[in-house]
């Protein structure tokens, strides 16, 4: 049964597959491996799985060793640790400095690995547009992160970051920054330099204040600050004229600056689980008459 599908596999390999399957001997070896691995569920399924592994888009790599052997070819490197699918066991404990040789890399996914540090050579990836670092063990980031001038999306959720380097403010093209569930207590004032930022998630951190420079994020549309320890907001919040969604659920807010009423495009404001604001409900509603405001999900 496998032999009957061999010609089709070779044909797809000729059109789309990576170099690893180009030689007939390698094809036969991989077919034999997959046949043994999936023997219990049938040979046809083995062939289908082979085709799924084989037919990656040009420039996509799922193995670090192979990627480093073809540095100029790599556009998308997916090393996230997950079970099933077409990913092998890519659990990483360290990232080699040679990662900086992937000069054409546009997307790097390192989600769900036990990484604790990034090499400074990460800053050499001048064409990188998307960087996924969620679910690791980072406590800090190298200052060279600020060299990624073309970066548009940076995911750092579920780490152990306590601070951010000031160089993060150099990411002039960054549109989305996800810092959900870290251990941040403060933000550098340079956060205000992210002139292209549209979405910022700082939920589940330990922030007690926001820098006034937050008001410089002129393109910000979504700001999520759920479950921090904020007691108030800087009056500069009024400068976020494109802000549409503001999430403040689960903080310790005692008051809101009247300047919040100047957010002309604000559509939704979540103030739930901020007990001290319940008595100010009418005042806040007058400041923002056209905004959908959540005060307490238990009573709404």
Structure write-up:
It comes from Leptospira santarosai. Keywords: Leucine-rich repeat, Repeat. This protein is an alpha/beta fold. The chain folds into 3 domains: 1-55, no CATH class; 59-151, Ribonuclease Inhibitor (Leucine-rich repeat, LRR (right-handed beta-alpha superhelix), Alpha-Beta Horseshoe), CATH 3.80.10.10; 184-300, Ribonuclease Inhibitor (Leucine-rich repeat, LRR (right-handed beta-alpha superhelix), Alpha-Beta Horseshoe). Helices cover 18% and strands 11% of the residues. An 11-stranded parallel sheet has the order 1-2-3-4-5-6-7-8-9-10-11. The longest helix is centred in the N-terminal third of the chain and has 15 residues, at 2-16.
Topology of this structure?
Elements: H1 2-16, H2 24-37, H3 43-54, E1 60-61, H4 64-69, E2 76-78, E3 107-109, E4 130-132, E5 153-155, E6 176-178, E7 199-201, E8 222-224, E9 245-247, E10 268-270, H5 281-287, E11 292-294
Parallel strand pairs: 1-2, 2-3, 3-4, 4-5, 5-6, 6-7, 7-8, 8-9, 9-10, 10-11
In short:
The chain is an alpha/beta fold and 300 residues long.
**CATH topology grouping of the largest domain:** Leucine-rich repeat, LRR (right-handed beta-alpha superhelix)
Which structural class fits the helix and strand makeup? alpha/beta
Largest sheet: 11 strands, parallel
Radius of gyration, in Å, reads: 24 Å
Low-confidence stretches: 1-55, 84-88
**Helix content estimate:** 10-25%
CATH A-level architecture of the largest domain: Alpha-Beta Horseshoe
Keywords: Leucine-rich repeat, Repeat
Domain Disease resistance R13L4/SHOC-2-like LRR: 91-157, 166-244
InterPro entries: Leu-rich_rpt, Leu-rich_rpt_typical-subtyp, LRR-SigEffector_domain, LRR_dom_sf, LRR_R13L4/SHOC2-like
Protein name: Leucine rich repeat protein
């Amino acid at each position: 049964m496998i032999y009957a599908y061999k010609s089709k596999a070779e044909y797809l390999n000729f059109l789309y597959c990576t170099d690893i399957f180009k030689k007939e001997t390698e094809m036969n070896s991989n077919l034999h491996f997959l046949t043994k691995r999936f023997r219990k569920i049938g040979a046809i399924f083995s062939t289908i799985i082979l085709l799924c592994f084989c037919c990656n888009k040009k420039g996509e790599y799922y193995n670090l060793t192979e990627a480093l052997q073809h540095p100029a070819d790599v556009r998308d490197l997916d090393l996230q640790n997950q079970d099933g699918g077409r990913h092998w066991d890519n659990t990483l404990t360290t990232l080699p400095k040679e990662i900086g040789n992937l000069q054409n890399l546009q997307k790097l996914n390192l989600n769900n690995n036990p990484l604790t540090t990034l090499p400074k050579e990460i800053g050499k990836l001048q064409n990188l547009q998307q960087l996924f670092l969620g679910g690791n063990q980072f406590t800090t980031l190298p200052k060279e992160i600020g060299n990624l001038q073309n970066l548009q999306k940076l995911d750092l959720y579920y780490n152990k970051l306590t601070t951010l380097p000031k160089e993060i403010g150099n990411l002039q093209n960054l549109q989305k920054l996800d810092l959900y569930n870290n251990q941040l207590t403060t933000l550098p004032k340079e956060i205000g330099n992210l002139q292209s930022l549209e979405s910022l998630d700082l939920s589940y951190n330990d922030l007690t204040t926001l820098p006034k420079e937050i008001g410089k994020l002129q393109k910000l549309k979504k700001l999520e600050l759920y479950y921090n320890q904020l007691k108030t907001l800087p009056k500069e919040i009024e400068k976020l004229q494109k802000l549409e969604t503001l999430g403040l659920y689960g903080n310790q807010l005692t008051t809101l600056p009247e300047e919040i009423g100047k957010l002309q495009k604000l559509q939704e404001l979540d103030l739930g689980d901020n007990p001290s604001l319940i008595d100010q409900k009418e005042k806040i509603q007058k400041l923002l008459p056209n905004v959908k405001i959540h005060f307490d999900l238990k009573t709404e």
